[in-house]
Amino acid sequence: MAIMDQTAIRKRFGEYLHARSLKLTGQRDRIFERAFETHEHFTPEALFDWLREAEGTTVSRATVYRTLTLLEEGGFIVSMNNGLGDVVYEHILGHEHHDHIICLKCGRIDEFQNTEIEALQIEVARTWGYSLVRHTLRLEGVCGTCRLSGAETG
């Protein structure tokens, strides 16, 4: 996927909202901007806290959750479980495809790319007669830090 700048992504979000008879309000724009400023995986509560601590338009917790839903439905961000039962988000437009490995003890999420795994997934899809559109690969385990601290696997 080609890398997109934040201005182009914001324009697409505005168009997405307009097609649903919604507006890119100041609150939605602040949420969009903050979500796309970070390169971390974030919870809705973390995003709400970041917005509350920063100056600007006041944003309600409910608006954060609703806007994250719109961003996810529109394909601007994705959500995943962090292994501890929390939903975390990351923006995907403007980023190269990557996969995740998640610690089931501390919730740490590491991103990785592996061309051999990518090729194998395409081959598996072809073998089963699929034309691959997208995929998510998530590996789960216990990170080195948790292993060294004596955490047991689940």
Describe the structure.
- This protein is an alpha+beta fold.
- It has helices at 6-19, 26-37, 44-53, 61-73, 115-127, 144-148; strands at residues 77-81, 87-91, 99-103, 109-112, 138-141.
- The protein has two domains: 1-95, Winged helix-like DNA-binding domain superfamily/Winged helix DNA-binding domain (Arc Repressor Mutant, subunit A); 97-154, Dna Ligase, domain 1 (2-Layer Sandwich), CATH 3.30.1490.190.
- The protein has a three-stranded mixed β-sheet, with no helix packed on it.
- The protein is flat.
- The relative contact order is 0.13.
| Proportion in helices | 40-55%
Corresponding CATH architecture of the largest domain: Orthogonal Bundle
Beta percentage is 5-15%
CATH class descriptor of the largest domain: Mainly Alpha
Give the number of DSSP strands: 5
Low-pLDDT ranges: none
Q: Could you say how many structural domains there are in total? A: 2
> Count of helices?
6
Largest sheet, strands/sense/barrel: 3 strands, mixed
Cα distance spanning the termini: 36 Å
User: What order do the strands of the largest sheet run in, or round the barrel if closed?
Assistant: 4-3-5
Shape: flat
Please write the string of helix (H) and strand (E) elements: HHHHEEEEHEH
